[in-house]
Amino acid sequence: VFPESSLKVAGVDFLKSQNTREHHTDGYNIKNLVVRRGQPFQVQVSLNRELTAADKLSLRFGIGENPLKNRGSLLSLKPEREDFNGWKISIVKKNGKECLLSVTSSPNAPVGKYNLHVKTGTNIYKPENGVIYLLFNPWCEDDVVYMASEAQKKEYVLNDTGYIYVGSAYNIYNRPWNFGQFEEFVLDACMYLLDKSKLSLSDRRNPANVSRAMSALVNANDDNGVLLGNWSGNYISGTSPMDWIGSVTILQKYYKTKKPVRYGQCWVFAGVLNTVMRCLGVPSRCVSTFDSAHDTEENLRVDVYLNERGEKLNSLSFDSVWNFHVWNDVWMKRADLPEGFDGWQAIDSTPQEQSQGRFQCGPCPVKAVKEGDVYLPYDSKFVYAEVNADRVYWVVKKVNGKDKYLKVGTETQDIGKNISTKAVGQNRREDITREYKYPEGSKEERKSMERAYSFIRPSGLVPRSGYASTVQAFGGTVQPLVLKEPVTKSGLHLEITNTEPLHPGNPLEMAIKVKTSTPGNWTVEVTGSCQLQYYTGKVQANLGTIKETINLEGTSEMQIPLKIAPDAYMKTLSSVEDEVLILVTAIAEVKETNDKLTKETSMRFQYPPITVQMPETAQLYNDFPCAFIFKNKLNVILENCKLLVEGLGIFKMTTFEQGDIMPGRIMKSEIICTPTRLGEKKIVAKLISNQIKGISTEKAITITE
């Protein structure tokens, strides 16, 4: 009997459309097969003859430059044999020369790019497009990123559009953002970052290590990462952070040039990191915190210095309160921590402070922030301070030529407000403050704070006001924190509002409301100031101040108007490259009791809208028109207008130069769209000019067969 002719492979079919549908990876715009770990996928192998019992057939998966069996980077899988590193393969059916195989990777396999070769006897076959991309799998119960809810997976893994919440606690607004994790080259850019991270193979199994590495690589500090941060106000040598409307252009440009893209600020870093994590298969969301403390001392206190006119001074303080700060939460089980800290973990790629020698932050369990367990890795003290610090106000007075500091107020419930993310499956803001903090003043909050303070409080610092400090007595007992509401004798209370819409080119009309609520005659001296500031709290211009003394009796209130003429601020508004906010600070002093109170509120300018005109549905590959209309309802010329538009699966990022738009004039731009993907798609538009740094809008369209 002649020996069978040697077995050879004639071809391999990766059954891409079936596999990617089952693995929720059919969105990726890439030739190769993309699958998720811990879940079977099938490959069809065509042979030169029928497979017999004596034949040796194996699939070999190699990861990295030089795959080796003993390093675990080369997996040699034989059908029906016991598994290898948690992987297994079986023959589904044989049909003549065709052989259908099922491959199941381990639910904790390293993520990355695997090269597939088929070995038959001594022959090795290398298929075309034989690189398989393996991702984390939130659909697999044995994967640590498993997420039970379908609706949540649809939002946090598969949604390629969303919002990032910005503005100020006084008026929060949404900035539409295209994450675009399925666009061309985005997955390749993420794989490049994984290689660049130098994570070991076993570190690539763990989303905690991967997300920490990505938080470092999305900023350009220390490692030539994706984005260069810039808060200087000068962006001439790159793209202004306000001009991005999504992550796609940034990641594509980075992948092409391998050089940091200029420039980012916190929401851009968070938008890009969100794309990277969703792209790799880790559920992820952008989280915005309003009045976020950037505290360099880890002492849970931010000092704000005012001059005698009540204007905030930039120069004196290193710590600051940002009007908003955006980071990300990623979802995973934390096997490296004690029980109870699974779920959302905060990561932050905005370069603020080094952690273990690099600009990286997290993953920090959101639960650890809430419970005060700030000793847990990674960077939980830093995240805790961002949402829990106190704000202390000081007035700097000149006395005999020397600076004297007078404390004029403490806010204990001011930092870390309105923590926000996009709601699951809906286009609205969801407030998730309760996931980060217990209700202010509750018993649980006090317990959590005592716990945090036992790990943070440096010696010799003034305790958080309104509370007695936790002091280690000689007997070794810890005295509890006593909650003392700093109520003033006069029941003094301040509120700041705008009395007219804040349109650029109009006077800014605001009011300081002063209230007293206890019996007596009160003489209140009120100092108020109005400034323009960046979202990082840096003051850009002083616009005006008022000083008034009023008399209030018992329970009563009085409104003091504060009005700023357009000439006082329009020049600054058109000369800065960033969006600025209107900061109003009020100091009130009661003569009779010496009570002092300080309050500040940041407000944003209000702009006319852009409208989008297009059909509600369209058919795949059938052109449809889309028009953008904007009427300048302001009293000022909008100079150097640019309209930026992008629609994932519809058209690439496009910029229209619009020149100057006069008051009352209407701008109209039209674009012809060709949809290339099914389902609900969104078109995002943003208008930028010297006077206005970003009016955004979006509109959805359903694409059918």
UniProtKB/TrEMBL annotation:
Its EC number is 2.3.2.13. The lineage of its organism: Eukaryota, Metazoa, Chordata, Craniata, Vertebrata. Gene3D superfamilies: Immunoglobulins, Transglutaminase-like. The keyword GTP-binding does not apply. The gene is Tgm4. Ca(2+) binds at N388, D390, E440, E445. Belongs to the transglutaminase superfamily. Transglutaminase family. InterPro entries: Ig-like_fold, Ig_E-set, Papain-like_cys_pep_sf, Transglutaminase, Transglutaminase-like, Transglutaminase-like_sf, Transglutaminase_animal, Transglutaminase_AS. It is an enzyme of class 2 (transferase). It comes from the Eukaryota. Binds 1 Ca(2+) ion per subunit. GO terms for molecular function: metal ion binding; protein-glutamine gamma-glutamyltransferase activity. Its cofactor is Ca(2+). The keyword NADP does not apply. SUPFAM superfamilies: Cysteine proteinases (SSF54001), E set domains (SSF81296), Transglutaminase, two C-terminal domains (SSF49309). PROSITE patterns: TRANSGLUTAMINASES (PS00547). The active site is at C266, H325, D348. Signal peptide: none annotated. Keywords: Acyltransferase, Calcium, Metal-binding, Transferase. This is protein-glutamine gamma-glutamyltransferase. Residues 258-351 form the Transglutaminase-like domain.
